[in-house]
Design a protein that fits this description.
It is a single chain. The chain contains 11 helices and 11 strands. The chain is α/β, with parallel strands linked by helices. It has a 7-stranded parallel β-sheet. It has a 4-stranded antiparallel β-sheet with strand order 8-9-10-11, covered by helices on one side. Strand 6 (about 180), helix 7 and strand 7 (about 205) form a beta-alpha-beta unit. Helix 2 (about 25-40) packs parallel to helix 3 (about 60-70), helix 4 runs parallel beside helix 5 and helix 8 packs across helix 9 (about 235-250). It is globular.
């Protein structure tokens, strides 16, 4: 049966895919995503991951893949009750293990509507104990419309803070602490609606929800979608969302990217100029990551081949 709603897309595609993942697939998927991001001039990734059949160690595998490519990553395991209390506890434990061992991460929560109140509170309390934020998908589809009220109850207890990442928020009905992450391409692909992000003020960061790695292309799409909603808006608004990403990964602001276009630092130029690509990338510590559009620390052809092999194994499991 072809999925015709957001919940059916989750049930028939993404949740089946998540369960089929193993650690080898996770490594090559992360390596490919990191390589594609680097080749688009992106040097830092904020990741939200789930692999219910391969939870333990999964965040370290992702971190290693990104380190091999040379990009920074802040990752989190998306806790959920879809696989019972044991699955939720294992997800919490993976977040805790990774962060306590020095990994750059947050406590992940899949989405409120797949978690009990007890699991949401446990994730919030763990994040507070570890002094990190929670990375959670909120009111992405209409099925999660009650997320705002549930998180507001936690906020009243001081458990939702400005270091939280509140992702999607298409159907969010109230103000909540934290950074709102707007994912226009993903929202359009899943037909969940337009988030109207400007209603949340200036605390918006631009994301992709894993559906792409080219942040300049995402910014162009975000602008025309915003403009369709409000014809008075300009590219400067979306450029602000793009720059807010550096608040999450501030070290990336000192990385140097040389583009094939002289005006890649201008929101008005980028909004109307397709084909802007990264030529050279040098990390702030002096490590050259990209030269003439090609990764320097890894073989992009090998990564694509290994990722394709892993994808075939994944498809066979599905």
């Amino acid at each position: 049966m072809h999925p015709t709603s957001f919940l059916e897309i989750l049930e028939q595609v993404w949740w089946r895919l998540d369960v089929a993942l193993d650690l080898d697939m996770i490594y090559w998927s992360a390596a490919l995503g990191a390589t594609e991001a680097l080749m688009c001039g992106t040097t830092a990734i904020v990741d939200h991951h789930e692999s219910p059949s391969a939870i333990e160690g999964s965040l370290s595998v992702i971190a290693q893949a990104c380190a091999d490519v040379g990009v920074r990553v802040m990752t989190a395991y998306g806790v959920t009750d879809r696989h019972g209390p044991d699955g939720a506890q294992r997800g919490l434990a993976e977040n805790e293990r990774f962060i306590r061992e020095g990994g750059v991460g947050m406590v992940g929560v899949h989405a409120g509507f797949t978690c009990s109140d007890a699991t949401l509170r446990a994730a919030a309390e763990l994040a507070a104990e570890l002094a990190v934020g929670v990375h959670i998908h909120v009111a992405e589809g209409i099925d999660d419309v009650g997320a705002g009220e549930r998180l507001a109850a936690l906020a009243a207890d001081g458990l939702v803070n400005d270091d939280w990442l509140i992702v999607h928020c298409v159907h969010l009905d109230r103000e909540l602490p934290g950074t709102i992450v707007h994912n226009p391409r993903s929202n359009m692909n899943n037909a969940v609606g337009y988030a109207r992000p400007t209603r949340f003020g200036n605390r918006i960061a631009l994301g992709t929800d894993g559906i792409g790695a080219d942040m300049l292309e995402e910014a162009r799409l975000a602008y025309v979608r915003l403009r369709e909603h409000d014809v008075t808006q300009t590219p400067d608004t979306v450029w602000g969302w793009l720059n807010n990403g550096y608040h999450l990964m501030p070290d990336a602001a000192d990385d140097r990217v040389v583009w094939n276009y002289d005006h890649a630092d201008s929101p008005w130029h980028v909004a109307f100029s397709p084909g802007v690509r990264a030529l050279h990338v040098t990390r702030s510590d002096g490590v050259e990551l990209l030269r003439d559009g090609q990764p320097m620390l890894v073989d992009a052809t090998e990564i694509r081949a290994k990722a394709a092999e892993a994808a075939q194994r994944l498809f066979a499991r599905l």
